[in-house]
Amino acid sequence: MTAPRRRNGLAVDAILRRCEGKKRYPDEMTCKAAGMHYIGIGQTRQLWCYPCKLCRGWHLTKQNNGPRNAIHKLLTNDALVHGGQDGTNEAADD
Fold it and tell me: Does residue 44 fall inside a structural domain?
């Protein structure tokens, strides 16, 4: 009988069931950048990121997990999401 394969101290099959079907980002900044992209193209309106204890990466979620991880709060107006009036990513002056 062989021992179950383990990664980060957890059985690999447990990780596969819970985590590996999700997109994994290597760090918080990359995860937030991906979230801003999805919001920017209109795929969703609100996203949060969270660190995963299973894979030691980061994932996106639509479930509120606090203001620190709220990606949509980083985008404070439409000009930041869709670009300024002249096509740049800077907010337009009022």
Answer: yes
Rg (CA), the chain: 17
Q: pTM higher than 0.70, yes or no? A: no
Looking at the 3D structure of the chain, how many domains does it have?
1
**DSSP assignments along 12-47, one per residue:** HHHHHHHTTTS--BSSHHHHHHHHHHHHHTTS-S--
34-70 pLDDT per residue, tens = 999 999 999 999 999 999 988 889 999 999 988 889 9
Helix (H) or strand (E) holding 81: helix 78-82
What residues does 7 pair with on adjacent strands?
10
